[in-house]
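Weekly modeling sync, notes
Attendees: AB, CL, MP (scribe)

Item 1: holo prediction request
CL wants a bound-state model with 2-phosphoglyceric acid before deciding which constructs to order. AB pointed out that an apo prediction alone won't tell us much about the pocket. Agreed to run with the ligand included and paste results into these notes for async review.

Input as submitted:
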Amino acid sequence: MQKVVLIRHGESIWNHENRFTGWTDVDLSEEGYQQAKRAGQILKKYDYNFDAGFTSVLKRSIKTLHFILEELDHLWIPVQKSWRLNERFYGALQGDNKDEAIAKYGIQQVQKWRRDPNEYPPAITKEDDRYPGRDLRYKNLTEREIPLTENLTETIDRVLPFWNEFIVPAIKQNQKVIICGHGNSLRALIKYMDNLSDEDVTKLEIPTAVPWIYELDEGLNRIRHYYLE
Ligand SMILES: O=C(O)[C@@H](CO)OP(=O)(O)O
């Protein structure tokens, strides 16, 4: 049996301000920093240790993983960062306040944008300041890989190659891995791992910085999962 730890980053400044974030590189709030430290202490209490870490290229996740590893005195383990673990790209909603969006577009539309796996948020154009194509960290992506908007189904499609190419081989080599991601990149992974229907995944809400333990059998099928508190 293998244990894999999934964890969403701690609260970000825009989580706190209730704004759509997506690929915007927003920092942790003070509360988010404390949450990350607490997550590390919880993992330490239960004697967890890791051989490898995986995270996105966004600082709220990178820092959360860093503070967790610091609590475990594990800053030395290899950490692989990939845009494929980024939050879902929220298009033209990025930066908008979620309550203001509800007032403008109605709760049903906003809820669809947020949770319907096949619904696209309004797209940006390549001229928009939020277009990731001018950001150095994405310079090796093809134009097709750089989103103007993204739904959860597409998030799954770009998370899975990273899961299959890097995380699965590490698990198969008996490495203990921790994956620090985002609400929707983890939702994408869990939809795949748990074979959740489109309907069921709409109900999946993932709290910030609470370690979520996946116990997997030899074939990497889920035995059970639970939060560590
Ligand atoms: O704003 C975002 O990028 C995400 C996560 O905070 O929001 P939501 O939960 O609405 O998908």
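Recorded for review: The helical segments are 13-16, 30-45, 59-71, 98-105, 107-115, 152-172, 183-193, 198-201.
Action items: CL to compare against the apo run; MP to circulate these notes.
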